[in-house]
Amino acid sequence: MKSAKKALATLAISCTIGLPAAYANCHLPPAPSKIPDGATASQQQMVTAMQTVQEYNHDVQTYLQCLKFEVRQNQMSPDDQVSLHNAAVDQLKQIASQFNQQVQIFKSKHS
After folding, report:
1. Burial class (CB in 10 A: 0-12, 13-18, 19+), 84
2. Is 19:82 a contact under the CB 8 Å cutoff?
3. What pLDDT, on the 0 to 100 scale, is given for residue 10?
4. Regions in the chain scoring below 70 on pLDDT
5. What is the 3-state secondary structure of the chain?
6. pLDDT for position 32
7. pTM to 2 decimals?
């Protein structure tokens, strides 16, 4: 069930992100492929996941700046920029939420 929801979310984002080909200079970074299970993960796995999520956040911020640049260069409409921006932020929020849930589980198991 979870993988089906994730696949649908990825597909929806891919369709949105696949708007006009003129935006080829901006590439939404791939989301982390796996968030460790806080109930069974080691501390090192959680730290590595945290670093991966932080890197993903940085990459998304770079992508958002690229979208702004594309609008300033008249390579993208403001409406398309808003749509792409919102899709990227929604995906980032989803990943951060998943990670934060696992951190809480990890902390409850190790306190």
Report:
1. buried
2. no
3. 46
4. 1-24
5. CHHHHHHHHHHHHHHHHCCCHHHCCCCCCCCCCCCCCCCCCCHHHHHHHHHHHHHHHHHHHHHHHHHHHHHHCCCCCHHHHHHHHHHHHHHHHHHHHHHHHHHHHHHHHCC
6. 97
7. 0.77
